[in-house]
From TrEMBL:
Domain of life: Eukaryota
Entry similarity comment: Belongs to the VEFS (VRN2-EMF2-FIS2-SU(Z)12) family.
Name of a matching Pfam family: VEFS-Box
InterPro entries xrefs: Polycomb_protein_VEFS-Box
Name listed for the protein in its UniProt record: Predicted protein
Organism this protein belongs to: Micromonas pusilla (strain CCMP1545)
Keywords recorded for this protein, A-Z: Metal-binding, Transcription, Transcription regulation, Zinc, Zinc-finger
GO cellular component: nucleus
Length: 92
């Protein structure tokens, strides 16, 4: 059970994440929103090591499955995110 301090911390963390993402000028607004949504998900899911990332990716896909199926742009960003994870050796 989360208490109000946890909610305030998440709100503050969320604002800071959005502020940091806004600093990127070469990234499309929708890409920033996807990155933020992934960051919030990972902040809550808390993978502790690379071995936990595949489960986090699967959980995110399940959590956002309807939106990923309905929105080709969102699906493309998620697939690119998966490719990046593979390129950096985080997933096999």
């Amino acid at each position: 059970v989360e208490d109000s301090d946890d909610e305030e911390d998440l709100d503050e963390w969320t604002r800071e994440d959005l502020r940091q993402l806004s600093d990127f000028e070469d990234i499309d607004h929708r890409e920033k929103l996807f990155m933020h949504e992934w960051n919030v998900f990972v902040h809550r899911f808390k993978p502790y090591a690379d071995r936990d990332v595949p489960a986090a990716l699967a959980a995110f896909a399940k959590y956002r499955g309807d939106a990923l199926r309905a929105d080709p742009a969102l699906r493309r960003m998620f697939v690119l995110h998966l490719v990046n994870q593979w390129d950096f050796g985080v997933v096999e």
